[in-house]
Every structure is written in structure tokens, then in C-alpha cells.
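Entry type: protein chain
Record version: 2
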Amino acid sequence: MMKIYRYLYYRLYSWNLKTWGEKDLPQWNALFGVSFMMFLNLGLLGFLLQFLGVNIFLRDELPKKELIIIMLSLFVVNYFLFIHRGNYRSTVKELKKEPPEKRRINTILIWLYVILSFALFVLSAMFIKKLNG
């Protein structure tokens, strides 16, 4: 799974760098993108647990403070994985050598991952809301 996030980070970083240049801080924009995708995936997991009857929330409403803490925690962990001490440079250097055919396949897989993550999160949220009234 970590391979997917490293590759997603690399693609977000390289796209941002090519589009807006270094002044737009592509390493930070990619960090926000990867952290957001992880947050969506954890949200989907939470919805699935709710559907299976495991109440992860102690009250009926969404716990805003806890969600903010989770998002910030993901951001901090990803900071140390990608940004701290320029770690993103070695990721970019390693993945930059990707052959064109593999890049095409990986592009399709990344798009599928992003689209499915969003779609399943939204569908799960709508389904859970409908179940709860």
C-alpha cells in the first residue's frame, strides 16, 4: 500500500512542478494530496465499520475534533515520510526512471484509485446517512 502512496506523491509532485514550477512548492502540494487521499480511505473504512455494526463514534454526530486530529496526524506522518530532510528527492529520483509503457499503465491505475476512493467514500456516506434516517 505504501508503494501506491509513494507513487501518488511522485505523480502529484511532478505534475505540480511541471505545471506551476518550484515556486508553488510542489512537494507540499503533493503532501496535502496524499494526506487527503489517506483520510478518504480511512473515512471509507469508518463507514464500512459502521455498516457492519461496529460503532466507532461514541455519539451520533461526527466527532469533529477527532477527525481534525486524525487528519493532522496523517499530515505529520507523511511530512516525515516525504518532506523531512528532502526525502521526496530520492522518491522522485527513483520513480523518474519509469519506462513510458509502465507509466501509462500506472497512470490508469492511479486514476482508478483516485476515482474509486472518492466514489466509494461518497456512496458510503450517502448509504450510511440513508440507513440512519
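Comment: The radius of gyration is 17 Å.
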